[in-house]
Amino acid sequence: MIPAIGAHPVFLEAGRAGEPSFHCESVTAPVRCYTPAQLVRAYGWNAYKNRGKGETIVVVDAFQSPTLLQDLDLEDSTFGLPHADLTIIAPQGLTPWNVDNQDMTNWSGEISLDVESIHADAPGARIILDLAKTDSPADLLAATKYAIDDDLGSVISMSFGQWEECLPSSLLDEQDGVFARAVRERISLIASSGDTGAAQASCSGAYVLGVSSPASDPDVTSVGGTNVFLTAGGGWTGEVAWDDGYGESGGGISTIYAAPSYQRALGAPARLVPDVAYNAGVDGGIIIAWGSSGSGAGLFFDLGGTSAGAPAWAALAALADQQAGRRLGLLNPKLYRLAESKRYASYFHDITVGDNIEGVGGYSTLPGFDLVTGWGTPQIAALIPALAATKAVRS
Fold first, then answer.
1. What burial letters (b/e) apply to 3-17, b meaning 16+ CB within 10 Å?
2. Cα separation of 364 and 370, whole Å?
3. Which of 50, 113, 46, 38 has the alpha carbon at shortest distance from 379?
4. Residue-wise pLDDT tens digits, 35-91
5. Is 235 exposed, middle or buried (0-12, 13-18, 19+ CB in 10 A)?
6. pLDDT (tens digit, 9 = 90+) per residue, 156-198?
7. Under CATH, which number does the domain 2-389 receive?
């Protein structure tokens, strides 16, 4: 499986009034970027104090990042974040770092993005980084299974995937069983929908119309991507479907899974992806410290992709659990119930501009639900208390 991440280097410049400054923060920069604080304000995270306190979020990734602890400390000191409560585990054994392995390098960027962005959104939460020994579907599922079997946390974030039809039926069956157990244990599963629009790389490498697993599993909340536009202070001014030259929001119709009950009101012919969205732009991405990029230690990058959306929604799920005082588990029935209510516009930013059309086809955004951004991006100040107040329901 591949991590759903895009990157662009950014450079720390002279500070302004004692604060860090990056050239990409300028509205005239050829590739823009946002600080964690800007995105926190834009989506309404700052409506809540002690965000994530008492909650644990598990991040499943592959290989390792040898500079992660230094990167996290640098991110925190640069942007005024509290020290993170991070635990790193490798249930299958930690794979030795190979500086010449580009696959490992890419995953180290994924790890930095996942951990640092979750910490920015839910700084009070405990984070467990659960590392698979390789990025094979079987090893990633084994790491996920370990987190569920040992009940490591109430939320699991998965920023990776591949075309669902490339997975052997035996592995899909095993995955279905593992995810169903997570639902029974009221663990929220969150996954990125992919970065190649409605196209997926087939088992032979050619691109076909399709959706990504694990995002297509009905027991998973699938997160697509947008490009968000902000004022200098972090005020939200608008969003479009993610398509900035670095990637496009994954989305489409599953050929594996039937329509779950929460999508039947949409007249769904099968499982539809994604459910929701979040900022995925590299042009307009989040500034992340990433020392294992191969470019040197102590450097920052402007990172994006639907990989940025899965950890954000994982943090949101943890905050909703915190507000509810209990595990909410599978979010989708609750999200769809709220989205189909009269207060939809207060819970979500409805994305109605853009598409994810590639050479094999694709889809356009629509009012309400669509196969590019799902129901849209969260208006967190209103959505979290509404989620927390929902009754426990299953798919």
1. bbbbbbebeeeeeee
2. 7
3. 46
4. 999 999 999 999 998 999 999 999 999 999 999 999 999 999 999 999 999 999 999
5. exposed
6. 999 999 999 999 999 999 999 999 999 999 999 999 999 999 9
7. 3.40.50.200
